[in-house]
Structure formats: structure tokens, C-alpha cells
Write the C-alpha cells for this entry.
Amino acid sequence: MSAAYATFGLAPATRAGGVRADGGYQLHRDFVDFIVDGRPLLFQLSDLDAVSPLASDVPPAIFTAQVRCLLLEAEPPLPDDRYVIYGCPECEDLACGAVTALIERDGDDYVWRDFAWQTGPHADLELNGYHGIGPFRFHGPGYREALGALLADPGPPAARRVLLIGARVALLARLAAALRAIGIGADITRDADGVPAEELRCYGAVAFGPTTGEAERAAVREAFGRAGVTVAYVDGLAPIVPLLVAQIEHALDRSPLPQRRLARLAVTAGTAVAAGTAVTAVVEVTAPCRVRLTAYRLDRFSRPRAHELFDGVLEPGSHRVLLDGRPARGVSYVVARTTGGVLVAATPR
């Protein structure tokens, strides 16, 4: 076993939820990720859609038990002394698959080794082992300090509620229902006047409907300012529920910018063609990941339309993607998704 040390840290991370183009839902999950040698360990796992056991929406007793397991102060949850490092973001069933590893003490050090993809009681290291990952040796004091801080002061719960401002009740009702379906609380109101500060602190974002006036928006911002509450403000691009959900998901993402797979999205107009203008998306990613690009627009009858533009694995760096060779028709919006984040950009007029 290598005697070289790796650094160990923790950082907030998000598995963005959303409304898929086929009408299905993907749950929103906030969790604490493991930072090994300055990078999320999750990024080394082949674009895996997973979350750590340190999720913000688990009961406090279970969260504490997970931390104590990682500190080797509790029995391992799996046979052969194996611990779950990442699991299914939609459920807790091992049958969905999980990344597991051995965690052991070596003197005052902690060692993570023998990483594997596991779907049953026992891991097959030869068949499903992550042979290029680890072992990682962590200094005991720093390791215990990082995890112990979660027990000493877990901090306030993640603000996973959104305040929806606007008069288009039907649209906002559909948006609230979609947000609740993916695990984000949502409330609808015309303004925030008279709302106690402790209630305003429950919100992580405020989303303005497309018809909300500037005076109404200013009044809401002033109410949150008086209460000393900092939130992300979302100006709805169009009355299209999946698009608005994507905007809100991006606003709720509290993970540090250097630790996001999806770093940038821009849409530019290119060569003029017979039916319009060819459009190119510039996508920047920080780790190998699957990227899906979806276009949303309103047709001439104000009906929302969605079209899948691109679905493929991109290597780290900046990429120019011709959007399916199709010209832009009017004003449309492109949503880029990875397993951990989402970005939105409007196509140029």
C-alpha cells in the first residue's frame, strides 16, 4: 500500500432535479461530497449519477450514523467490512447499485481502498472493482476534524424551498407541483410584504413569473433585504414549466464553482440557412461527463415545445456543439444538463 498521503475535505454538492422532456421527473438532492486531493471524488467515477450518504434530506439520526460509520465509530453497513461511498439518488436500494469501499485504520491514519460497484451483499472486486481509484491514505487529525465538524455543528438545513411571485396562478400552480414532485418545496404569493423574517429564511430562491412587474419585483427584494435574508432571484425566461424548473435548480446550486462538472453554456448564432439560422452551443465541462442539451420554445399558439438536441459524453474543456443541425425558429432556450448540474441560455434572436 502506498505511503503517500491524499488530502481529505468536504464540500456541498447538488444532484439537480428536473422535469425531463418525456414528462418524467428527476429528484433534487443536496449532499456533502468528498473532496480528495482538491477534486470531488465523484468526478473520478465515470460520470456516475449518485450522491454520498451525507444527504441533507435524511433524518438527523441517520445522518449522524453515517458520519460515525466513516469515522469507524459504528459497524459497517455491509458485509466484508464495506462502506457505502455513493448510492442511488432516487432511493436507498443497494440493488440500484452503489460505490463501496473498505475503510480501515492504519495507526492514526484512515485508508480508503478496494473501491467497487456493488449491487448485492458482496462486492466482486475482479469484475466490478474501480482498479484505477485509490487507495487513499488520509492523515487522521484532518480526517476526523472534517467529519467531526458535521457532528459538532451541522449548520442550518439547506434552503430547499422556493417562493413563486406572480399573478398567473395556473402557470405557477403547475410550476409548484413540478418542484414538489422533484423534492423542492414551493409557495405562491403576489408579494412578500408582512412576512416574518423567520419565514423568509426558509427560502433559497425567489422566482418571478414572466408577467411580474418591476415594481413588484423591487418590493419583494426590499422585503428580503429588510429581513437580512440572502436568496437567489430568478427571472422567468418563458412560461414553460421544465425551463423554469431548470432555472430554479441552477439558482439553488450552492456547490463551489470549481467543483461543478458543468461550468459554462453559451448559445451563438452561426451561418444563415434557408429556414433560419444555424445555432451552436458552447459547453464547458470540468470532468468527463454526459451532457444533454434540450431546446424549449413556445409555438405560435403559445404551446410549449421541447426538442432533444444533443446527448453525449464530453471530455474536460470547451466544446462547440452544432445543435442537431437545425436552425433556430424564433426565440428558444437551451437547457444543458449533467448528472450534477444544469445551465440555461437563450438562443440569439
Observations:
- The chain has a mean pLDDT of 87.
